[in-house]
Amino acid sequence: MFGFCFTTFTINLFYYCSLLSTQNVVQQSIKDVNQSLVDDFLVQTDKIGSANFYWCFPAKEYFDKIRYKDQLKVQLQETKQNMSDLQLKIAQHKEGSCRSDRPILLAQLAQLREQRKDFMNYLEKN
Asked: How far apart are CA 102 and CA 126, in angstroms?
């Protein structure tokens, strides 16, 4: 059934169903298979009047893979750029160069720790 679909470029659904019904294939299963092929983007469809036409070009899969590969390359480049930016930010944070008032804040922290230590000593004595 799939071989017929990929060797013929344009298929009329009515003709397709009548052809396969001579082989004792249920018409609903033909429609289900065609719909699943359309959903998977393996076959294109078009409704002309009351007839549905399905077609598939042999090179479509090849070009879809090339397009997908190009998209993946772009995503890879974006991810590498994002990763390098994040590594640079991590390095800046490790150095502490991202804040200019860091020494002042460290001095305040040391002073507050000293005050806490004094208060704890005072509480232990009382």
From this structure: 36
CATH architecture, domain 2-57? Orthogonal Bundle (1.10)
Q: What is the pLDDT of residues 23-80, one digit of tens each?
A: 777 778 878 888 888 888 888 888 888 877 778 887 888 888 899 999 999 999 999 9
In the structure encoding, which two tokens stand for residue 86, read together?
């994040």
Q: Hey, CA dihedral for 87, 89, 90, 96, is it positive or negative?
A: positive
Query: Quick check: helix, strand or coil at residue 106?
Result: helix
Q: What is the pTM of this model?
A: 0.46
HEC secondary structure over 73-94? HHHHHHHHHHHHHHHHHHHHHH
Distance of CA 16 to the CA centre of its chain: 36
